[in-house]
Amino acid sequence: xxxxxxxxxxxxxxxxxxxxxxxxxxxxxxxxxxxxxxxxxxxxxxxxxxxxxxxxxxxxxxxxxxxxxxxxxxxxxxxxxxxxxxxxxxxxxxxxxxxxxxxxxxxxxxxxxxxxxxxxxxxxxxxxxxxxxxxxxxxxxxxxxxxxxxxxxxxxxxxxxxxxxxxxxxxxxxxxxxxxxxxxxxxxxxxxxxxxxxxxxxxxxxxxxxxxxxxxxxxxxxxxxxxxxxxxxxxxxxxxxxxxxxxxxxxxxxxxxxxxxxxxxxxxxxxxxxxxxxxxxxxxxxxx
Length: 288
Ligand code: SAM
What we know:
The chain has helices spanning about 5-15, 30-40, 60-65, 80-85, 105-115, 130-140, 150-160, 170-175, 215-230, 235-240, 250-260, 270-285, and strands spanning about 30, 50-55, 70-75, 95-100, 120-125, 145-150, 180-185, 190, 200-205. Helix 9 (about 215-230) crosses helix 12 (about 270-285). The protein is about 40% helix and about 20% strand. It contains twelve helices and nine strands.
């Protein structure tokens, strides 16, 4: 029986007396054509190992299991585990893991199971979309692609460039690791219960080598975070306010001037390339 339909979902929920939990961002997809669209856009083959975050009732997991070689489905809500065991009983290639994805280490799991790399596919819980994406992008898990349903405005943040209101630390973290493409938009009627926002599916194809090279990528990321933590401040003020960076306002101003920039610029005007250059210049004051 297909779960990702109005009838299939209603039946499972009532038979298991399951109360949907808002605190876990539970909005189940009940439009089979959208589920198919997401899974199609991940372009899976039987060679692929999928990491699904938040399988919920298992609606999308059923289709992932048919298309991929294996599926690791990480679900935080322990009340959903018996339901998943029932709905996925015929899917022998699915491993259901009851864990918080933010505490789950995909690299260690992949090594233990002999998995070379994952394709992540998920209808993400919206209350922690950004932390989950950061966990995946900033960790060292072997990932080929990430195909996820997110709030439409988060999809826009991932793709936006300098000088726009949506541009920020998430845009740069995504664009440093991957090429983002919006697959489709999804209206609230496709979920039970309906979210208060429009949704979009985004596919991120991970680069083998990043599009820019910074001598110390971790330091560049720290600089980016500091720049957008204090978005309204000038870059020189924002970076010098972060003790972990150990740079003075004057050093940042000098570095910006040596890059041909105004010493009063804000982080939101710098491209990824410029952040990499700034990071290198702040690392080696002799190059100022
Ligand atoms: N995949 C299902 C679907 O498309 O119908 C459910 C998607 S629902 C938007 C998000 C799912 O993520 C829920 O099942 C929720 O319990 C689970 N979840 C929430 N926080 C999580 C976390 N930190 N780690 C793993 N799963 C989480």
